[in-house]
Design brief:
By secondary structure, the protein is an alpha+beta fold. It is built from 7 helices and 8 strands; from the N terminus they run H-E-H-E-E-E-H-E-H-H-E-H-E-H-E. Strand 2 and strand 3 form a beta hairpin. The longest helix has 19 residues.
Length: 221
């Protein structure tokens, strides 16, 4: 009995040490911050977030609806991203967190991923400067001067040799039933443009699975 108790205590102690040793890192320049909405969270069916979730979400995981670039300097922690509200903008991390607070006051899930090879991180973040102030790309087209969130990341994470870190995939705007959600139909009708179904593009859900990234435990904000 005593021997069993000692073994049990050893197992518990090992688990405790393992939990305590799980490293919580700090946000670093070049980290990508993905915004995830739990599968059981109800979104307004007329919102872009809901339309993105229905088209690219995975029923076995979070619906990743946004991705942003982190920058850390002597003045603080910053986010560079593309949103309808701000266009392509650099703003404090706290502002980013506030912008993505859910309608019921709860917080989404923030997932931080980092490049496995950080050697060109500063260069990639510096690339963002030429895009600041441009509008959000409501057309989701790769050939115009505006950019959507994951398009901004792809276009910034490219070396001087023109080699992109992240690949494109055929864009999908249809839901699980093969229909275009109301949001997309109304948006592109107002833009007098076709829905760019199947054209090459990017989205946060697929980008998060890139083999170039590794998950990093970071508590935000």
């Amino acid at each position: 009995m005593l021997r069993h108790s000692i073994i049990l205590l050893s197992i518990v102690a090992s688990l405790f040490v393992a939990c305590r040793s799980e490293k919580v890192d700090t946000l670093k320049t070049g980290d990508l911050v993905f915004v995830g909405i739990p599968m059981d969270y109800s979104l307004d069916n007329s919102s872009m977030d809901a339309a993105i979730a229905s088209a690219t979400g995975n029923p076995d995981s979070l619906n990743l609806i946004h991705v942003a670039i982190a920058e850390v300097d002597a003045e603080g922690k910053w986010i560079i991203d593309a949103t309808i509200k701000r266009g392509i903008d650099r703003h404090p991390l706290d502002t980013f967190v506030t912008d993505f607070t859910l309608k019921d006051g709860s917080m989404p899930v923030f997932i931080v991923k980092r490049l496995k090879d950080p050697s060109k991180t500063a260069e990639y973040v510096a690339n963002t400067r030429k895009y600041l102030g441009r509008p959000y790309d409501l057309h989701f087209m790769p050939s115009d001067d505006s950019l959507y969130c994951s398009e901004l990341v792809r276009d910034c994470y490219v070396g001087p040799d023109g080699e992109y870190v992240f690949d494109t995939v055929p864009m999908n705007f249809k839901d699980a039933d093969g229909e275009f959600p109301l949001y997309w139909r109304q948006l592109f009708e107002r833009l007098h443009a076709p829905i760019p179904q199947g054209l090459p593009g990017t989205n946060p859900q697929d980008m998060s699975k890139s083999p170039a990234l590794v998950s990093t435990k970071v508590d935000l904000p």
